[in-house]
């Protein structure tokens, strides 16, 4: 029978099966061949064929084709890691303060959302703590790019209804920095979800790790399905070709082919570059371009390890939240 993976960890999946039983399942033969090379064998949102053993246990026989995958490159495991599969919307939950708004983190998530092919939505939570002008400016940049932007406050019960409307009938994945309020929002949206809410550590101004694995939560009527993910500190982007990166920045797409060096332009330094001209003329927001440059440098660096086939250097550029340069 068919089933929907709600979560997966330690080689065991919680699967909502067609007969509405939620079964704890292991994988027949221990591996799914189609997912060899991935960091994790299955992801929340995967459709699988299940052989029921009892009302509570089953065996996963195969993975049904994925519509899309949202994930990142896992640096520790040196492999692609899927957070969620078959999703209709990527929601990046950010906060105005504690943790501070990190626009370049949102840029990275937007690239991953473009790569996944699902619509992208940004939720700016904790507006009760104050929404400063620089944040508003950056949010309007995102809005002008065609991304949906919602402002919310769990403390004030603000914006939650709009978010519910945006998510209705969809499977969404929530990603964001730890402490931004993903679990708090989910608890508002899905009564009884009881996702653990973390304390924001005062010392580091960020939440503790409370969510340990991606889990799909759903409302009793099943009109809302949200995959909550662990708070992310690092979003490495690796599996995009250097020349393809600009295609993941919607503002650069219309300029492709207009650079003096044509398709070989890297948009980093060339004269007659249409992208650089657009940045100078403020048609492309400078900070978005900065994100492009950083991700490109990172891709270039990772390609060099591959070329020389040497081991990953000990000291690599890390893009961490702790880093003010993020
Ligand atoms: N002031 C304020 N605090 C919030 C809001 N939403 C969540 N929090 C707090 O932020 C902390 C982290 O929330 P949590 O939902 O665990 O974040 P997650 O790590 O993204 O899942 C908790 O202490 C929440 O009570 C909000 O809208 N305003
Ligand atoms: Mg959480
Ligand atoms: Zn160019």
Index terms:
Ribonucleotide Reductase Protein R1, domain 1, binds zinc ion, 3 domains, Rossmann fold, binds magnesium ion, 6 helices, five-stranded mixed barrel, binds guanosine-5'-diphosphate, about 325 residues, alpha/beta, globular
Could you give a quick summary of the protein structure above?
By secondary structure, the protein is α/β, with parallel strands linked by helices. The protein has six helices and 15 strands.
Structural description of this entry:
The termini are far apart. The longest helix has 23 residues, at 286-308. The protein has a 6-stranded mixed beta sheet, sandwiched between helices. The chain is built from 6 helices and 15 strands. 22% of the residues lie in helices and 25% in strands. It has helices at residues 103-116, 133-144, 160-167, 182-189, 274-280, 286-308; strands spanning 2-9, 12-17, 22-27, 47-52, 57-63, 69-74, 79-85, 89-95, 120-125, 148-151, 171-176, 200-201, 206-207, 215-218, 225-228. Magnesium ion binds at residues 182-183, 195, 198, 210-211. Residues 182-183, 195, 198, 210-211 line the site of magnesium ion.
Element-by-element helix/strand order: EEEEEEEEHEHEHEHEEEEHH
Tally the helices: what do you get?
A: 6
**Largest beta sheet: what is the strand line-up?**
10-9-8-11-15-14
Provide the CATH superfamily of the largest domain: P-loop containing nucleotide triphosphate hydrolases
Spell out which ligands are present.
guanosine-5'-diphosphate, magnesium ion, zinc ion
Rg over C-alpha atoms, rounded to the nearest angstrom: 21 Å
Average pLDDT reading: 87
CATH architecture descriptor name of the largest domain: 3-Layer(aba) Sandwich
């Amino acid at each position: 029978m068919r089933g929907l993976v709600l979560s997966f960890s330690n080689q065991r999946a919680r699967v909502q099966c067609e007969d509405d039983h939620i079964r704890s399942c292991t994988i027949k033969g221990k591996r799914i061949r189609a997912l060899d090379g991935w960091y994790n064998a299955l992801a929340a949102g995967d459709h699988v064929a299940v052989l029921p053993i009892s009302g509570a246990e089953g065996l996963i026989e195969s993975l049904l084709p994925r519509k899309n995958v949202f994930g990142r490159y896992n640096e520790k495991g040196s492999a692609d890691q899927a957070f969620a599969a078959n999703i209709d919307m990527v929601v990046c939950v950010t906060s105005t303060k504690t943790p501070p708004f990190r626009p370049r983190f949102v840029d990275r998530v937007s690239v991953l959302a473009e790569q996944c092919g699902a619509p992208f939505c940004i939720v700016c939570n904790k507006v009760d703590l104050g929404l400063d002008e620089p944040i508003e400016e950056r949010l309007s940049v995102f809005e002008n790019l065609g991304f949906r932007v919602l402002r919310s406050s769990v403390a004030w019960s603000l914006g939650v209804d709009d978010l519910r409307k945006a998510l209705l009938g969809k499977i969404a994945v929530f990603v964001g920095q730890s402490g931004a309020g993903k679990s708090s929002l989910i608890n508002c949206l899905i009564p009884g979800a009881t996702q653990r809410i973390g304390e924001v550590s005062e010392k580091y101004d960020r939440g503790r790790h409370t969510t340990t694995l991606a889990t799909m939560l759903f409302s009793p009527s099943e009109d809302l399905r949200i995959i909550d993910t662990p708070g992310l500190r690092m979003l490495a982007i690796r599996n995009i070709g250097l020349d393809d990166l600009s295609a993941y920045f919607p503002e650069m797409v219309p300029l492709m082919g207009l650079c003096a060096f044509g398709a070989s332009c890297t948009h980093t330094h060339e004269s007659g570059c249409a992208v650089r001209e657009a940045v100078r003329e403020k048609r492309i927001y400078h900070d978005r371009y900065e994100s492009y440059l950083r991700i490109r440098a990172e891709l270039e660096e990772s390609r060099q390890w591959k070329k020389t086939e040497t081991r990953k250097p000990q000291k690599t550029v890390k893009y961490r939240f702790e880093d003010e340069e993020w």
